[in-house]
Amino acid sequence: REMIDGGLRATLCCVDTQQLDACFAGRDFDPPLLDALSVGIDPCGEHGEFHTCVHAGPMFDRPIRVERGETVLRDARFAYTDFQPL
Question: What's the sign of the alpha-carbon dihedral 68, 32, 79, 23?
Answer without folding.
Answer: negative
